[in-house]
Design brief:
Elements: E1 3-11, E2 14-15, H1 21-31, E3 56-64, E4 69-77, H2 88-97, E5 104-113, E6 120-132, E7 135-143, E8 148-150, H3 154-162, E9 175-177, H4 179-201, E10 204-208, H5 211-216, E11 233-242, E12 248-258, H6 260-268, H7 275-285
Helix pairs in contact: 1-3, 4-6
């Protein structure tokens, strides 16, 4: 019998299968708070401290067979900083927009101000710009990693602190990428707030998600357009690819242009189950008070 679960794929920038058990123990100790100064993020310029609690960059699917554990190629990026490797997104977007070879970048650009306090209340993750010939051209960029549902990683960190096997053990609990919540509850409200304003200003919004995330909201359109005049949002879909040295690198994948309305339909798409199915599941969950 084969069982499949998602577990740690990359940890503080290291593919978990490429490090020794002793090295994993060091990562686990730091994930549990042993290193107060933290570990550097290898994907962001300047390698600042890892911003992700626990240091997990991406998840990976594990399969448990009767006497072995197999790590599959199914991956999901769970940290936004993972998208920043080698400035792939910035260079890609600048090329699409014809911004030249040396685009400029602003991080967390203030976008909204509270009407109650006057303080900044919302930001754009990144702004990619071309500032030349006395004219400023720019495009917002939202980066959306996927959240996961299920038990937190604390128990997994504790177990890996003690594990001495060459192959990482099968995950201790059920965890899975929750693309629907990440899209409908997190990304969609951001787009609904920001895109109409950018549209009025004559600017575009770009959104970066990984390939599994994009597949979960419908994947490439049947007739994708790359005409910037055809929509409001430039969807960038990079992929994690293993290089000759066995390291994972972020590479360009699919891109297309969609309207805000088309994007919303994808992110919010869901069908109500029949009443009989709902009540059948309800009976199994009802508990006495």
């Amino acid at each position: 019998m084969t069982t499949e679960r998602f577990g740690i794929g990359e940890w503080f920038g290291h593919p978990i299968e490429s490090v020794t058990a002793d090295f994993r123990k060091g990562l686990a100790a730091d994930a549990l708070g042993a290193n107060e100064s933290g570990r550097p993020c290898p994907f962001r310029n300047g390698h600042p401290r890892c911003p992700k609690a626990g240091g997990v960059c991406s998840l990976r699917s594990y399969r448990a067979h009767e006497e072995s554990v197999e790590l599959t190629d199914r991956r999901a990026i769970v940290c936004p900083s993972r998208f920043e490797q080698d400035d792939v997104l910035v260079k890609w977007l600048a090329e699409i927009l014809d911004y030249g070879a040396a685009p400029k970048v602003a991080r967390e650009a203030p976008f909204m101000r509270s009407t109650a306090t006057g303080k900044w209340a919302g930001k754009v993750d990144m702004v990619v710009a071309h500032d030349g010939d006395g004219q400023l051209k720019w495009c917002g960029l939202e980066i959306q990693a996927v959240y996961f549902s299920g038990r937190g990683m604390q128990s997994e960190f504790t177990r890996l602190l003690e594990n001495a096997d060459d192959v990482p053990p099968f995950p201790d609990a059920v965890r899975r990428p929750d693309w629907r919540s990440s899209g409908a509850k997190r990304l969609m409200p951001q787009l609904q707030i920001k895109v109409p304003t950018l549209r009025r200003w004559g600017s575009k919004m770009a959104v970066a998600v990984d390939a599994p995330f994009f597949a979960a909201i419908g994947g490439p359109s049947q007739a994708p357009t790359q005409d910037l005049n055809d929509g409001d949002i430039i969807w960038l879909v990079p992929e994690l690819q293993e290089n000759a040295a066995g390291q994972l690198t972020l590479v360009r994948g699919h891109w297309e242009v969609l309207t805000l309305e088309e994007s919303g339909q994808r992110l919010l798409a869901a069908a109500t189950v029949p009443r009989e199915e709902f009540e059948s599941g309800l009976h199994a969950r009802l508990q006495p008070t």
